[in-house]
Amino acid sequence: MEGVPEVRVRGLEEALRALSAEPLSRSEGKVVESLARLAASRASYYSPKRTGRLAASISVRRSGRMSFSVTPGALYWPYLEFGVGPFELNSRVYVQNVGFRHIDLHPGIRPYRFLRRAATESLREVGSLMRSLLRGRGI
User: Is the whole model's pTM more than 0.85, yes or no?
Assistant: First the structure.
Protein backbone atom coordinates (compact mmCIF):
# COMPACT_ATOMS: atom_id res chain seq x y z
CA MET A 1 0.00 0.00 0.00
CA GLU A 2 1.54 3.29 -1.07
CA GLY A 3 2.03 5.93 1.62
CA VAL A 4 2.00 3.44 4.50
CA PRO A 5 4.87 4.05 6.93
CA GLU A 6 7.31 1.20 7.32
CA VAL A 7 9.91 0.54 10.01
CA ARG A 8 12.96 -1.29 8.76
CA VAL A 9 15.70 -2.59 11.01
CA ARG A 10 18.85 -2.58 8.96
CA GLY A 11 21.69 -4.90 9.80
CA LEU A 12 19.73 -7.36 11.94
CA GLU A 13 19.76 -10.11 9.31
CA GLU A 14 23.53 -9.65 8.78
CA ALA A 15 24.14 -9.70 12.52
CA LEU A 16 22.21 -12.95 12.86
CA ARG A 17 24.14 -14.53 9.96
CA ALA A 18 27.45 -13.46 11.47
CA LEU A 19 26.77 -15.19 14.80
CA SER A 20 27.17 -18.75 13.60
CA ALA A 21 25.39 -21.02 11.20
CA GLU A 22 24.36 -23.54 13.86
CA PRO A 23 22.20 -21.32 16.14
CA LEU A 24 20.81 -19.47 13.14
CA SER A 25 19.76 -22.63 11.32
CA ARG A 26 18.03 -23.90 14.47
CA SER A 27 15.93 -20.81 15.00
CA GLU A 28 16.05 -18.93 11.74
CA GLY A 29 14.00 -15.78 11.87
CA LYS A 30 12.74 -16.32 15.43
CA VAL A 31 14.29 -13.11 16.69
CA VAL A 32 12.65 -11.10 13.93
CA GLU A 33 9.33 -12.88 14.36
CA SER A 34 9.40 -12.39 18.13
CA LEU A 35 10.20 -8.73 17.60
CA ALA A 36 7.23 -8.35 15.23
CA ARG A 37 4.87 -10.14 17.63
CA LEU A 38 6.07 -7.97 20.50
CA ALA A 39 5.51 -4.83 18.38
CA ALA A 40 1.98 -6.00 17.46
CA SER A 41 1.15 -6.70 21.09
CA ARG A 42 2.39 -3.29 22.19
CA ALA A 43 0.63 -1.54 19.29
CA SER A 44 -2.64 -3.16 20.39
CA TYR A 45 -1.98 -2.08 23.97
CA TYR A 46 -1.18 1.56 23.05
CA SER A 47 -3.90 2.00 20.42
CA PRO A 48 -6.97 4.08 21.32
CA LYS A 49 -9.73 1.85 22.68
CA ARG A 50 -13.03 3.65 22.10
CA THR A 51 -14.53 0.54 20.47
CA GLY A 52 -11.55 -1.85 20.59
CA ARG A 53 -11.78 -2.60 16.85
CA LEU A 54 -8.43 -0.99 16.06
CA ALA A 55 -6.56 -2.94 18.74
CA ALA A 56 -8.20 -6.19 17.62
CA SER A 57 -7.34 -5.55 13.97
CA ILE A 58 -3.54 -5.41 14.43
CA SER A 59 -1.89 -8.48 12.92
CA VAL A 60 1.54 -9.90 12.09
CA ARG A 61 2.26 -11.36 8.65
CA ARG A 62 5.40 -12.90 7.21
CA SER A 63 6.46 -10.87 4.18
CA GLY A 64 9.82 -12.51 3.49
CA ARG A 65 12.31 -15.02 4.87
CA MET A 66 13.42 -12.64 7.62
CA SER A 67 10.70 -10.01 7.22
CA PHE A 68 7.39 -9.49 9.01
CA SER A 69 4.69 -6.82 8.76
CA VAL A 70 2.74 -5.44 11.71
CA THR A 71 -0.43 -4.05 10.17
CA PRO A 72 -3.62 -2.55 11.56
CA GLY A 73 -6.63 -3.78 9.60
CA ALA A 74 -8.93 -0.90 10.56
CA LEU A 75 -8.96 1.54 7.65
CA TYR A 76 -8.99 4.60 9.94
CA TRP A 77 -5.68 3.80 11.66
CA PRO A 78 -3.66 6.54 9.84
CA TYR A 79 -5.98 9.23 11.23
CA LEU A 80 -5.29 8.04 14.77
CA GLU A 81 -1.57 7.38 14.26
CA PHE A 82 -0.76 10.73 12.60
CA GLY A 83 -3.70 12.88 13.72
CA VAL A 84 -5.97 15.20 11.77
CA GLY A 85 -6.23 18.98 11.93
CA PRO A 86 -9.55 20.76 12.45
CA PHE A 87 -12.00 20.38 9.56
CA GLU A 88 -15.48 21.56 8.57
CA LEU A 89 -18.15 19.08 9.50
CA ASN A 90 -21.46 20.98 9.56
CA SER A 91 -23.37 17.93 10.69
CA ARG A 92 -25.23 16.34 13.56
CA VAL A 93 -23.04 13.80 15.28
CA TYR A 94 -23.39 11.64 18.32
CA VAL A 95 -21.08 12.77 21.12
CA GLN A 96 -20.42 10.03 23.65
CA ASN A 97 -22.21 10.62 26.99
CA VAL A 98 -23.84 13.80 25.62
CA GLY A 99 -26.13 12.83 22.75
CA PHE A 100 -26.60 14.30 19.27
CA ARG A 101 -25.09 17.75 18.71
CA HIS A 102 -24.70 19.96 15.67
CA ILE A 103 -21.00 20.56 14.97
CA ASP A 104 -19.79 23.11 12.39
CA LEU A 105 -16.07 22.58 12.94
CA HIS A 106 -14.53 19.34 14.14
CA PRO A 107 -11.63 20.09 16.51
CA GLY A 108 -9.41 17.47 14.90
CA ILE A 109 -7.73 14.39 16.32
CA ARG A 110 -4.44 14.44 18.18
CA PRO A 111 -1.80 11.98 16.88
CA TYR A 112 -1.62 8.90 19.11
CA ARG A 113 1.61 7.48 17.57
CA PHE A 114 0.73 4.03 18.91
CA LEU A 115 2.61 2.21 16.10
CA ARG A 116 5.72 4.35 16.43
CA ARG A 117 5.77 3.87 20.21
CA ALA A 118 5.32 0.10 19.85
CA ALA A 119 8.12 -0.16 17.26
CA THR A 120 10.51 1.96 19.35
CA GLU A 121 9.90 -0.02 22.52
CA SER A 122 10.11 -3.37 20.75
CA LEU A 123 13.45 -2.50 19.15
CA ARG A 124 14.91 -2.05 22.64
CA GLU A 125 14.30 -5.77 23.15
CA VAL A 126 16.58 -6.90 20.29
CA GLY A 127 19.52 -7.40 22.65
CA SER A 128 17.63 -9.67 25.05
CA LEU A 129 16.11 -11.65 22.15
CA MET A 130 19.59 -12.15 20.64
CA ARG A 131 21.02 -13.23 24.03
CA SER A 132 18.18 -15.73 24.36
CA LEU A 133 18.96 -17.12 20.91
CA LEU A 134 22.68 -17.43 21.70
CA ARG A 135 22.02 -19.22 24.98
CA GLY A 136 20.07 -21.81 23.05
CA ARG A 137 16.93 -21.42 25.13
CA GLY A 138 14.85 -20.62 22.09
CA ILE A 139 12.49 -17.71 21.99
Answer: no
